[in-house]
């Protein structure tokens, strides 16, 4: 039920939601506990029902007025007070949101006025304190709208939302706002005229002005019919928003004779308020008139300063060289102020005096507000990682034309930040977003706001830990553990030892002095700050044992050598006295072989098939738009995002290539746009960071095309390729690009002409120019047919790409056209820049000249510019055509050049963009790098900063001499393969300018690089070394680049000398032992064999005894071992002869061709693996086979080695060879028998 009560202008809105009493159906048992249950249930439902009914009167929204009327350009405040219960259902009421809106979106959701683009910079919402009386609370909220426009007329609604169920309430009805203008209505009665100030706003006090001077205060005003004065009215309190001035005599002449009535004294300002950026310039204009019989003495602009006498701005020292009056038309005056400052914010008025009247300028003129830019960070400038941060570029007033904004982080522009919104949203914010931010308006990138610092706090990342010194730690030494972690604020550190609660040291470094064996173990650090904490990985500290004596070391060394020698001796004797491992021949059924062949084939094919099918839904390419329309000469960005699985079939996905293309070659291979000659120097491709969420990854790639041409209209496709099988995907459909020009279409209707800006690109904001000066915005424009003006149009944001100027009738209007908008010319050459111009033939031409466009500076003739002295001239010109020639071009000549002329009644200002000249040099770029290895592919590219015209041919030079056959229209020199003969200095030039070479770029070619071979070592002097003498160890290894050497002594970490030679002076017994050197370069490393150095006459007696004892034991064991093996061989020979006869009568086992076929099938997907030597193959698994012997089992005959049988064709008894050696990628593991397998090791 809604109750509305209107009392005066007070509207009270009560919103409620009634509920019907619940239908209670109770089935109660005769038992007592059931009766209690029913009673409790009924009481509970009745309580909830009456609670729902109670207190609905506590929810109200009351607005101060249901209807508000305000003047265009003024400010209006609309207020509403809302009321709500402090508590309901034992839940305290909290106001979650307040909202002002005038319209809803497609989903019927209110559009917040604060985020409505039509109100940007003009609205503010504020709420007062909450006031609670008894159990009810209320709060007042106010909406302020500045610089009201006619389009602001609407019904404004207020809504608030709470945490209570259904606690969302809206004012009903809202507040109806009417925005109106003031108009003077004239009605004649005899010789008198009644003037009435017409406005939709009633009950306003009206003020009247006569010739700009205040005369009276009343609703209407009577004047005599033949008055030459002008009259206007205003509402008290809003005097600056006065009506346009009207002339009684003008109206009389218009109605009586049909003559135009411009003969009264009046001044009109088309724009009442202006908001302009500090540092730029502004044009403030007005129209004025006076009786034709009155002579005009003077006219000027002045700054309104209350009761001070007006003074001409051009003579004001505050505006020296900054205020000027451009050449004016009759009845129109313009004030131009350059290099605007904060102090220029004021009201500017126009004044003139004739022989009959002086216009005092009491009527309000144009109010100028000069604003700077500032950055506001929401919610605060110091945030935590993961929050949402909004940066807003703020001005004190809304700038005209809704400009685009550019954002900068740490003085670099933020990619993709240019947009018509003045906000940069970082969601979620991360450490990479921290820094100093500033903003600028697109057309004024040099006028940046002061920087605002954004601080992003985040928890410590995974700490890295280290120990000094590294490796094994000697007992008694000192050890320092270090921990570091990226964190903001800086992390605090605490050290812990696993399974030891006694360690809990604080600090980034933890030092243990006089370390003992008890200190060994795993250590880790804990990094923490106010945001979070992180634990490092464990760091293991190992202590080296120092208790072994020299005797113990010697005995252990001899013992190890003894055991090694015995093992090798046993292997040698066994190999020489026994036969090779038997070749096991299996006579198996043919069907068994075929079955195995089929099984392997099916398994392999199924694996490949399901690999191709798996995960196709994870492969996508999505482009931002399927159709793009851009202007010729502009730059377009086309973006596509591709998605792929992070891993598939245990193979991590790697993106190998990204490619943009529009066409394919004869082999249906895409032609990369980066290598397409039609796009040379105009395209760039870039890809963002890879983002992985869950098991899926995506990446955005952007293609930028500069200086668009009509021929660029095409469908652009994006393709990416990965290392997965079938992992190549293309966007479908691609992005269709339409490149269009602007044209002004003229259609005549009666005595007027309708001008329309024709373009294929829809929904563009059109800007109109008249005689090269900014005129207005709109899709079309109307003018009289007999106009001598020229018109052109442009799209906002692309003003330099304006249409050609057109005349409404004939070709004799005022206009300038530039046939070429952009030019790229080589430094040191010359250029001709031309234009065509026209003007009415009856007007005398005073002068013409070219100038270099310098923002906010007056044009000056280039021939008089000292920067161009002796380099600029205007060749003999044809009528209506002018040419600028600049010789000896320099980098500083890169600029925009415009043409201007002056005739009797007009001066072409040159505001329309002219021809932009870019002067470029040449430079050589070497790909991949300037230092390469022999055999690589090297590409040298002759680069310019912009594409030169006419696709010139290039000449290459090596060591100042031309490279034979290098002259071609391509700007690249390819060396494939590169060799030592290609090393040297390279430069390039354009064919017609061989003297203008690029700076030289040096190409270094290194011979084929290889890791060090096994180093050879020597000692000088050789043999036994006498104690006290000098010894030199030498090491050499074949390597490229040359190896570095380090010397080590076995079991002694104290030696680590660098250098090819290592000299030991005063050699002692402690220095004796095994030495080796370590050779390394950038490709690899290698250790030498051991070099033993013996010192004579100084061995200890204890060591000698120990070594001698071990040697005697060694000889004894070897003798007994030889006797045992000889006897065993003799018995084995006798047994073999008794069973098989002579060993040389055995038959060799031939390879089975069926198994060869299987090997060929299963290895077809990996030919490289077949060719790879066995020694180089990884992960070789040795399989052993156990052969059981039973009475019922036939043991296959095993053959001895046959001269026709190779290791690769031998078969194990009972098993086909392909089960032991076949390798199917991804399906069957690789299994191979060892080359030499002892029979007693064949035990599976």
Automatic annotation (TrEMBL):
Keyword Transmembrane helix attributed: yes
Region listing for Disordered, in residue ranges: 1136-1156
Entry keyword annotation includes Kinase: yes
PROSITE patterns for the chain: IG_LIKE
Transmembrane feature ranges: 553-574, 595-613, 1105-1126
Keywords: Kinase, Membrane, Receptor, Transferase, Transmembrane, Transmembrane helix, Tyrosine-protein kinase
Stated name of the protein: receptor protein-tyrosine kinase
Domain of life: Eukaryota
EC annotation from Swiss-Prot or TrEMBL: 2.7.10.1
InterPro entries hit by this protein: Egfr_JX_dom, Ig-like_dom, Ig-like_dom_sf, Ig-like_fold, Ig_sub, Ig_sub2
Organism whose genome encodes this protein: Merluccius polli
Domain Ig-like: 173-247, 375-455, 463-538, 924-1004, 1015-1096
Molecular function, one GO term: transmembrane receptor protein tyrosine kinase activity
